[in-house]
Design a protein that fits this description.
The chain has 471 residues and is an alpha+beta fold. The protein folds into 2 domains: 235 residues, Glutamine Phosphoribosylpyrophosphate, subunit 1, domain 1 (4-Layer Sandwich), CATH 3.60.20.10; 172 residues, 3-Layer(aba) Sandwich (Rossmann fold), CATH 3.40.50. Helix content is 29%, strand content 24%. It is built from 18 helices and 22 strands. The strands form 5 sheets. A 7-stranded antiparallel sheet has the order 4-3-5-2-11-10-12. Strands 6-7-8-9-13-14 form a 6-stranded antiparallel sheet. Strands 17-20-21-22 form a 4-stranded parallel sheet, with helices on both faces. A hairpin with a 2-residue loop joins strand 15 and strand 16. The longest helix is centred in the middle third of the chain and has 15 residues.
Length: 471
């Protein structure tokens, strides 16, 4: 069994993950396990800020949750409320100064803040704030939101938050924490998932529900689009909305690739939706082959559905080196190419002399698909047909995913048959946009990377995306 190195500069990277705890004893310990459950959403850095109602306590660092936190330093995070963050750098880049949560000191009251997503009008807002005297300590668009709150002349914090939220545009799930309250905010298009759970008389909030099972919390509900939910130290709730019009435009890639299979997104289990996508893909583009192989790990569910629908054996023809982890979540192309790589090994006895249907969740740049197909054929596969459980990615994403230019997207420049030829597949087919909507049991969600129809105006990113003259 031979092994080759696959450089994962192909795959789209996740945004970030946020987690909050209030009215739970030893909140930082719960936070540790919550963030660990969200580690797949970002590996560049992580942080926790806690409060005991009298003071804030902060630990941030670059690296994994298990590298930044330990039993000793968690004890320094006092209090029964906390917010935390795992980071993959999107807007603003990397570095310790951009690791969240941020802590802001102000005479009207200190507060902590963290954010999942991306603000598409960050450049314009930052220029405005700097002209008004604001000085930024990071290059993260999250800090912009804090400045907008503090620049507001209203003395009521909730009204200041609502005013600030109405100035920003994009995809976001914000957690803010004063010394005695937790503020939970979701964008009016609900592009990013955010859910509330109950634990030991207190509450937790998470980017994904998979964290609830790990810590023993019970799912309560999803945070609504445009909602501001406030929970105080006595467990009192206050729900308000910053937008009159709200929409259910969940990002399709959360179902297809980003979220863990054991998470539920707005009532739909991720594994089940991926499996159903595989079934639909098999109906739309059946293939005559001997075995089905899913590309580990996020494509395994779709491969199961594809196999069951066609009654063709689903085999483990590719093995991923588990000890490497999801190291493709790197902040720069330089790091991806130089050292951040995954290792996949074909099982020769499984693939040799077989006609294979390779099921994957997406094709972004095409480089990884090409390498995997070559690897399988070098191991003796007679044919490799590729089936993709998402539509072709033809347009950039500006909402926190690192596909921000047309140049990066092979399907923006080539037809399906041209892509097939480039990657060396014997045949290639993608699920339809109608098929992916049916798989997740929705009549609407954000399909902008497949259609070019964005749920928000995209401001300065039009120019950034237009490097090859598409607009």
């Amino acid at each position: 069994m031979s092994e080759i190195e696959i450089f994962y500069n192909e795959l789209p990277n996740e945004e970030c993950g946020v987690f909050g705890v209030i009215n739970v004893k030893n909140a930082s310990e719960v936070m540790y396990y919550g963030l660990h459950s969200l580690q797949h959403r970002g590996q560049e850095g992580c942080g926790i800020i806690s409060s005991n109602t009298e003071a804030f306590y902060k630990i941030r660092g670059e690296g994994l949750v298990t590298e930044v936190f330990n039993e000793q330093n968690l004890k320094n995070l006092e209090g029964n409320m906390a917010i935390g963050h795992v980071r993959y750098s999107t807007s603003g880049g990397g570095g310790i100064e951009n690791v969240q949560p941020f802590l802001f000191r102000h005479h009207t009251g200190d507060f902590a803040l963290c954010h999942n997503g991306n603000l598409v009008n960050s450049k314009e807002l930052k220029h405005q704030l700097e002209n008004q005297g604001s000085i930024f300590q990071s290059t993260s668009d999250t800090e912009i939101f804090a400045h907008l709150i503090k620049k507001d002349k209203q003395t009521n914090r909730l009204e200041a938050i609502k005013s600030a939220l109405n100035k920003i545009e994009g995809a976001f799930a914000f957690l803010a924490m004063s010394q005695d309250k937790l503020y939970i905010m979701r964008d009016k298009n609900s592009l990013r998932p955010l859910s509330l759970g109950k634990l030991n008389g207190g509450y937790v909030v998470s980017s994904e529900t998979c964290a609830f099972e790990v810590i023993g919390a019970t799912f309560v509900r999803d945070i609504n689009p445009g909602e501001i939910l406030i929970i105080d130290q006595d467990g009192n709730f206050k729900s308000d909305y910053y937008a009159k019009k709200t929409y259910k435009n969940m990002c399709a890639m959360e179902y297809i690739y980003f979220s863990r299979p054991d998470s539920d997104i707005e009532g739909t289990n991720v594994h089940s939706s991926r499996k159903e996508a595989g079934r639909i893909l098999a109906k739309e583009a059946p293939v005559d082959c001997d075995i089905i192989i899913g590309v580990p790990d996020s494509s395994i569910s779709a491969a199961v559905g594809f196999s069951e629908e066609l009654n063709i054996p689903n085999e483990m023809g590719l093995i991923k080196n588990k000890y490497v982890g999801r190291t493709f979540i790197a902040p720069s192309q330089h790091l991806r190419e130089k050292g951040v790589k995954m290792k996949l090994s074909p099982i020769r006895s499984i693939v040799e002399n077989k006609r294979i249907c390779l099921v994957d969740d997406s094709i972004v740049r095409g480089t990884t698909s090409k390498k995997i197909i070559k690897m399988l054929k070098d191991a003796g596969a007679l044919e490799v047909h590729m089936r993709i459980a998402s539509p072709p990615i033809t347009h950039p994403c500006f909402y926190g995913v690192d596909t921000s230019t047309y140049e990066e997207l092979i399907s923006s420049r080539h037809t399906v048959d041209e892509v097939r030829e480039i990657i060396g597949a014997d045949s290639l087919a993608f699920i339809s946009k109608e098929g992916i909507l049916k798989a997740v049991n929705r009549d609407k969600m954000c399909l902008s990377c497949f259609s070019g129809k964005y749920p928000t105006y995209i401001y300065q990113n039009l120019e950034e995306a237009n490097k090859d003259g598409k607009f």
